[in-house]
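[#protein-structures] MJ: dropping Olfactory receptor 51A4-like here for a structure pass
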Amino acid sequence: MSTFNTSEIEISIFFLIGIPGMEHANIWVSIPICLMYLVAILGNCTILFFIKSEPSLHEPMYYFLSMLALSDLGLSLSSLPTMIRIFLFNAPGISPDACFVQEFFIHGFSAMESSVLLIMSFDHFIAICHPLKYTSILTSARVINIGLAFSLKNVLLILPFPFTLKHLRYCKKNLLSHSYCLHQDVMKLACSDNKVNVIYGLFVAATGILDLTFIFMSYMMILKAVLSIASQKQRLKVLNTCVSHICAVLIFYVPIISLDVIYQFAKHSPAIIRILMADVFLLVPPLTNPIVYCMKSQQIRNMILGKLCQKHS
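AK: finished. structure tokens for Olfactory receptor 51A4-like:
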């Protein structure tokens, strides 16, 4: 693997990194990674299939679940090409244009997942705090419009990323820090002024923090409403409806926050910790969300079991 060290030569290829020190075992590392991608893609496709084909699931909460599954599916498919190339074929090279396209999709679907988790928290808030108004507030048309509005917002939010990166010059370093392209990682390689990228990157990060803040506020109001219920059994029953969503929020945000803390306060920590945490951020949510929701949603679970029983009978 060679790198360019002269300022006159413009970088024509970036190099991604797998797991440092384990390059000799890439083929073995690729096995669990491929299995994780396979389960994630099949799991999210299964949820989308049942929600689309079963009329009884044509309700707001399942529409939001299908949006989450689409975000997870997009996140998996965005990172899949480079992860497979590195670990299965030992080919870490990627052209700058392909790298910019990948980081657009990764950040776009990440932003969409954050938005969907926010929408789902409002869905739980309305269902628990205003149950009589739920059907009038969240009509099918309104749910579709909300989904389209947030999708458009996230596309417009992330769209400047590849264009601002493309206008930078890359002439000294070409080794990235992860197995896929991220905006903050690519812009550090630039040898020209990247203040615009830094400022806009912070703005995009702030929107994610805003989503998390609103999710937290929603659950504070939900908790207040639950505590006003006299029966402890009823309280637990109501809170149980939020377990899947709380798990999804933790699975998505904990790796992001942990990675940010490591970059800010533990800059001298081993690189492998940052790399593994970044891989967890992309691999684990799409893998675990379908499992959690299939376990907690009795309707989806019964349909899957019913289909399996039909095949065996």
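MJ: nice. The two ends are 55 Å apart (CA to CA).
AK: one more thing. The beta strands are 14-15, 93-94.
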